[in-house]
Give the backbone structure.
Amino acid sequence: MIELRARDELGLTRLAGLEALHHFSFGQYQDAARGHWGALTTLNHNLLEPRTDMPPHPIDGVDILTIVRKGVIAHRVNMDAVDRTLAGEVQLLCPGRGIVHAQSNPGAKLAEFVEIRLRMETVPERVQRRVVKFPGRGHTGRLALLASGFSEDRPAMLLHSRARVFGARLPARGALDYILGRGRRAYVMTLGGSVEVNGQAVGPLEGAAIASEREIRIESRKFAEILLIDVR
């Protein structure tokens, strides 16, 4: 089963300086049919204007991945010193027992970033943060494991649920294959370009919720970038 999450069906938030698309219920956008996909609870595509602050908000119980596509995103945890995530970087933030988190765009250009939240199965005592690079030209044509909750997947960033998050660049007329384990689900999001997932078209910023499929084949006619999230 593959359920397309078309762009015109996604949730939309517009606030001062912020435009966000929501693949799952978030903030003022609530859809009982799209509360989560296994451990995946949040998948937002955000555009944040220069010199714009997002309001601080409490976070607990989830790992947060921030994938910066353009510009820079600054993070403040519990009003401590600011960390910055730059274009092409992926930050994993684990809130430990709970934090107050604030994001902002301190730059002079529009910031574009994707935020993923995954429900934790175990909760560490301390806040944890790590940053890696999104796949570059040298990784075109294959899945790159960004974060995982499986010990055998080190040195990928550590998740606190049995999930895996991959990024990939597909060349024109490229293809990727992925085997989904028994009882597991996947979610594919197209960051740029368009792909076909088991023959079903998925356009820019759209998603495909996948269950009860043993094999996943992702094909591109032109260059594309994607996320693949494997959860239970």
Summary: The longest strand covers residues 40-48. The chain has a mean pLDDT of 96.
